[in-house]
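TICKET: design request
STATUS: open
ATTACHED STRUCTURE:
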């Protein structure tokens, strides 16, 4: 197997034609590992020095990518995964499903070979089912690294049933009643319009409408969007994912006012709830956020999606809607001689 190390951003142009093809045949086919997400994140943030490692078979087939960079932080040079950590929920090594062991072995060897260029490794947001967590620690230990796998955060998910009524039946009785009551009240007391943005609408205007709702919904979100890089990333990833057919940008209009919105992704049979916006004082008694979320879950079920993923964070509403925890972890490593 042939290894190549890329230090320049031209890597994304070089690998564009092959990246997603590999991803679709990998064990980590998640939207945050796509060429679109990874290249957009790097173009906007450029948080250090690129350290992208590729694995090819002797015939030249791309079968593995370690999509990494080295960040200088507090005097330490730290290997991180592109996308880590704030605006990305899952990331992982990309390994073709038929070459997982070989890719892991060679990527661990590449880290050992280039150990003089960094002080430690901190790979975030690795899903609990990832082969990386099961196999890579021992491969790094064989090269003299001390390795620790650390719990990072929860990602509540709903495994979707075939029918909306089955979903409701799986909820706590009180919450089932609350969802029905809130939807019924909103539909009876106001004029509602629910829609997912498509080609019939002005996409740029809809994105700006979402960003306004996101900003209005919470001071922390407003502060996040005050950072020009965060705003640039949001606009860029909105356009790229929409063009790929992955973005599900939905709105609930109450009495003519756009009152709630969700910025979700539809990828690989899963709906990923990435962010939201809400006018906190406009028609608050009608629970626009919960009503919109209920409509979106019902639409996901009707569209035969398998999972409704709330992504990172343990906010209470996720559990009230039926979310069950899955975990993400950090893989931390450091040479034993320097620990």
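STATUS: resolved
RESOLUTION: sequence designed for all positions
ATTACHED SEQUENCE:
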């Amino acid at each position: 197997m042939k290894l190549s190390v890329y230090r320049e951003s031209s890597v994304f142009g070089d690998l564009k034609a092959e990246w997603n093809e590999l991803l679709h045949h990998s064990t980590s086919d998640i939207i945050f590992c796509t060429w679109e997400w990874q290249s957009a994140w790097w173009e906007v943030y450029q948080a250090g020095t690129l350290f992208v490692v590729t694995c090819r078979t002797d015939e030249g087939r791309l079968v593995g990518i370690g999509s990494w960079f080295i960040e200088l932080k507090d005097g330490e040079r730290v290997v991180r995964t592109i996308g880590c950590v704030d605006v990305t929920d899952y990331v992982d090594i990309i390994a073709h499903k038929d070459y997982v062991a070989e890719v892991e072995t060679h990527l661990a060897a590449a880290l050992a070979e280039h150990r003089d260029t960094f002080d430690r490794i901190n790979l975030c947001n690795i899903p609990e089912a990832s082969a990386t967590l099961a196999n890579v620690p021992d491969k790094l230990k064989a090269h003299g690294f001390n390795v620790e796998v650390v719990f990072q955060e929860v990602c509540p998910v709903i495994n979707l049933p075939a029918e909306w009524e089955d979903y409701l039946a799986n909820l706590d009785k009180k919450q089932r009643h609350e969802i029905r009551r809130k939807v019924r009240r909103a539909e009876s007391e106001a004029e509602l319009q629910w829609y997912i943005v498509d080609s019939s609408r002005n996409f740029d205007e809809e994105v700006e409408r979402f960003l306004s709702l996101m900003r209005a919904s919470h001071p922390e979100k407003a502060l996040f969007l005050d950072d020009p890089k965060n705003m640039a990333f949001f606009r860029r990833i909105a356009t790229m994912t929409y063009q790929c057919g992955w973005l599900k940008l939905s709105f609930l209009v109450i009495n003519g006012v756009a009152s709630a919105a969700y910025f979700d992704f539809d990828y690989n049979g899963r709906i990923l709830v990435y962010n939201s916006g809400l006018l906190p004082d406009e028609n608050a008694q009608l629970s626009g956020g919960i009503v919109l979320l209920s409509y979106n879950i019902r639409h996901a079920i009707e569209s035969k999606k398998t999972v409704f993923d709330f992504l990172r964070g343990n906010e209470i509403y996720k559990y009230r809607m039926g979310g069950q925890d899955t975990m993400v972890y950090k893989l931390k490593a450091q040479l034993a001689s320097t620990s």
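CLOSING REMARK: The chain has a mean pLDDT of 96. The CA atoms of residues 219 and 225 lie 10 Å apart.
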